[in-house]
Amino acid sequence: MPSFNISNPPEPQVLTMQHFRSISNRYGGLAKSCRFLVRIFNNFLMLKESSRAINKDLTYLCEATELPGRAFTNVDLRYYGPQFKIPYLSVYEDLNMTFLCRTESFEREFFDNWMESINPTTSFDFAYRDDYSTTIELFQYSEQSKAVYQWALFDAFPIFINPQPVTFADDNIQKLTVTFTYTKYRRNNKDITRPLHRYAATPDGGEFTKQPQSIVI
What phi, psi does 139 have (nearest 5°)? Predict the structure, then answer.
């Protein structure tokens, strides 16, 4: 069997720690998974019955989450030769958020109320999506506390409040993991922008109203 020379192979001598440090230190260094923030916007229709709108607190209490993913649903085709795939649908995967819980259980109450607004246990009739969905934003920060990446998740709402294990065996901080679904995301600082109307509180802390915001997506 004939053998051919490999053209233009990488030189082993460039694979050194010095070169790795040079590459990894470019553009602010390596990203840290702990440099993130979550912002859940109010939906007036969703929260009008709630006596405690704690969404601002959740920014501080969100201990862990996932940056959103995207996939394609594909169809297999073959004309001649090997089979190949053609994408035909974008799929935005659900993501989980884990929140630290305080003694008064406001966090659990907030998400229980949200789920109740989606499907009231008095009737089990599902509400319209516009009545309970909202926008969630996720931010990735640099070590210098600069927001470098931002995602806006549209039509987001919880679909699963995970069971909370409790035990006499330890006294760890109680946590709450919630699974969210959403229609799509847009990278606020990367993609084509358009004006966004979000549900926001009035400056005096009164009723929630739908107001145009200065941020665009």
Answer: -125, 135
DSSP state of 26: G
> What's the CATH fold of domain 31-71+87-191?
Pnp Oxidase; Chain A (2.30.110)
pTM beyond cutoff 0.85: no
65 within 8 A of 138, measured Cβ to Cβ: yes
Alpha-carbon distance of 209 to 187, in angstroms, equals 25
* For the chain, domain boundaries: 31-71+87-191
Q: pLDDT value at position 159?
A: 97
Contact status, residue 86 vs residue 75, Cβ threshold 8 Å = yes
The pLDDT assigned to 208 comes to 41
184 phi, psi to nearest 5 deg: -165, 170
- More reliable by pLDDT, 6 or 166: 166
What pLDDT, on a 0 to 100 scale, did the predictor assign at position 201? 42
Inter-residue contact 205 to 53 (CB < 8 Å): no
Q: Tell me: pLDDT of 77 over 60.
A: yes
- Reduce the DSSP state of residue 12 to 3 states and report it: helix
Distances (CA, A) of 75 to 84, 93, 149, 191: 8, 19, 32, 27
The confidence score (pLDDT) of residue 193 equals: 65
In the chain, DSSP assigns E strands to: 36-40, 62-64, 70-77, 84-92, 95-100, 134-141, 147-161, 175-181, 184-187, 195-201, 208-216
Phi and psi at residue 79, to the nearest 5°: -100, -55
